[in-house]
Structures are given as C-alpha cells and as structure tokens.
Amino acid sequence: DGPGLVLLGAAASVLAVDLAGYWVHRIEHRSAALWRIHRLHHSDPDVDVTTSYRFHPFEVLLRLVVQGAVVVITGISPLAVAGYAIFSSVTSVLSHANLRLPRALNRLVGLVALTPEMHRTHHSIEAEDSSSNFGVCFSFWDPLFGTYRSGPVMGHQRIVFGVAGRSAEDATSLVRMLADPFLPERPMALTRRPAGDLVE
C-alpha cells in the first residue's frame, strides 16, 4: 500500500469513529435509559471548559465500547487513534468554552470542527435546541443528517442551561452527580446567562 492509501484509510477510519460518536450522542437524547446517564453532562447551569469533563462514568464506558469497536472493525492505526484522541480533547474543550469567536474565525473553524456557538445551542434547556447539533468533533454530520441548528431559541445572550427536573445541588455535588441516573426528578433553579458574559 502506498502512503496515500494508508493516509486515506486512516482518515476514513477517524471519520467512522467520529460518526459513531455522533450517533451515540444522538441516541442518548432519544433513549430514556441512555438520557439518564447523559443528562449529567447537560445539568451544568453554566457551560464552560469544565463542562467538557462532566460525564458520568457509565457514559464514558459506553462511548469507549462503541468507538473502540469501530476502531477494531476499521483497523485504524494506533497513531491515528492517538491523533483523534488529541483532536477530540481539544475540540471538546473549545466547543464548551465560554467564548465568542470572531465571526470570520467562527465560520472558518465551523466548516470542520465544533465551535462554542454551535455546541452552546445544544446545551440549551429548550428541547428544540438540545435536539440539534449532536456532533462530537466534526461539524458536518449535523448538516448532513438534518440536525443542525444555527442558534438557540432565546439567543446566545439569553440562553438557559441545565436540565429541567435537576436541582442546583444535583448539578454541583459529586455524590449526586454520580447518583444522577438513579435520582428522582426535582424542580431546578435555572440560570440565565446575562448579556456580555461571553468572553470576546
């Protein structure tokens, strides 16, 4: 095999792994059982870089199993796996960051990878917002599968984060976060992001 074919194969495998992540994420929002383990990620009342690390261990395990299976099936090289892992980590931190990218840069990055503006919409408490923008790293799956939304219903300055039925304590206590899949529903004090709170 020539280097071009090897590179092409690695790129196809990386896309397959990311596509699997997109579908796992999308199914997590449709399945009541999987939503119970994913909602911890959405319970953060103030989305920022720390949100990129707020995942229940059950969800981490689920994604490792599914994406690991894709890695085995596609035969992706260890180097490509490492590259994707780094890219995924950087994209996750960027997409959850409390930033507003310059418009031109947002458009440019958004052609390939998730931007804070795109993923912030997904974290809105509004059902039509959170039922969109499921991409994990690459941004083109949502337009391709009809799940892309350009912005939140309430606008970026008035967006409400969190999960209806989760309390502020549920969203901040380590014990409650770990127990979240088993907790009953509770009213949640929602936090509105005031205008100008995004870092330019």
Radius of gyration, whole Å: 17 Å
Largest sheet at a glance? 2 strands, antiparallel
Q: Taking strands numbered 1, 2, ... along the chain, how are they ordered across the largest sheet?
A: 1-2
Shape, please? globular
Topology as H/E string?
A: HHHHHHHHEHHE
Which class do the helix and strand fractions yield? Answer: mainly alpha
Write the layout of secondary structure elements.
Blueprint lengths: L2 H28 L1 H11 L14 H18 L3 H19 L6 H8 L5 H7 L4 H4 L10 H5 L14 E2 L6 H5 L1 H6 L11 E2 L8
Antiparallel strand pairs: 1-2
Give a brief outline of the structure:
The chain has 200 residues and is mainly α. Helices cover 56% and strands 2% of the residues.
Report on this model:
- The chain contains ten helices and two strands; from the N terminus they run ααααααααβααβ.
- With about 200 residues, it is mainly α.
- The chain has a two-stranded antiparallel sheet.
- Helix 1 packs across helix 2 and helix 1 (about 5-30) packs antiparallel against helix 3 (about 55-75).
- The longest helix has 28 residues, at about 5-30.
- It is globular, with a radius of gyration of 17 Å.
- The termini are far apart.
Keyword list:
two-stranded antiparallel ribbon; globular; mainly alpha; 200 residues
